Amino acid sequence: MSNEDRDRFLYKYPNSDVLRNKLGLIDGKALADAEIYLVSQRVRQGVPTGDFGLSHLQGIHKHLFQDVYDWAGQIRQVEFSKGDSGFHPKDRIEMAMADVQKRLASQQFLRGLSREDFAKEAAEFIGDVNRTHPFREGNGRTQFQYLKQLGKQAGHNIDLSRFEQKSWIQASIDANRFKSDRMAQCIEQSIADRSRETQSKQKSYVEEQRERAKRARNKHNDRSR
After folding, report:
1. pLDDT for residue 203 is more than 50
2. Segment 103-116 mean pLDDT
3. For residue 112, how many C-alpha atoms fall within 13 Å in the half-sphere facing its CB?
4. d(CA 84, CA 19)
């Protein structure tokens, strides 16, 4: 059986390019819309954390796509590519992710790095994860959550809403060719500005203290009458 035939047999509806799904949807647009909604609901519930190895990725993927695919969290059983971008053979996925985890651990999971340096290093690792592409579908959204958690434990708040889809897609294509500059730029731009956050918190604190003082003053005046 060819890889294409195996892909159709394992993952797609007969005579269709639509992936078999728990919702029974046979229209690609309807499936994509349902995915977006259901995955967003699972993100709101909280995404599983882990040790940044393959099992961590699998846990994230299973959580995000459990309402859509029976194979959520399972390693793909076919070879896979998109356009000119080829990904690791399925038999090398475990080895490749073990290497990613080992290297991350040797670099203390990128803790203590500046915003710029974190973005550069994280781009290298996310590029490696992307080349692995462990799942038949949903790798990008899984990688986003993986990256967000990597940033959080390293002291960088990554705002996923700052990613522009077209820029990230091109960055992923570049990274698959071992060119990570564009991805590093995307990641750096997604990191929330701590100084602005601090200023906002300080402003809120000052306003709160003023409001408390105002209430206390009014209360004192009422008692004096």
Report:
1. no
2. 97
3. 3
4. 21
Contact 142, 207 (CB under 8 A): no
155, HSE (Cβ side, Cα atoms, 13 Å): 11
Contacts of 110 (CB under 8 A, 6+ apart): 104, 118, 121, 122, 125, 150, 154
C-alpha–C-alpha distance, residues 87 and 109, integer Å: 24
In this model, does residue 81 exceed pLDDT 50? yes
Annotate 150-216 with three-state secondary structure: HHHHCCCCECHHHCCHHHHHHHHHHHHCCCCHHHHHHHHHHECCHHHHHHHHHHHHHHHHHHHHHHH
In the numeric block, the tokens 């076919």 are attached to 78
Produce one character per residue of 26-49: b if its CB has 16 or more CB atoms within 10 Å, e if not. eeeeebeebbeebbeebbeeebee
Over residues 11-29, the mean pLDDT reads 96
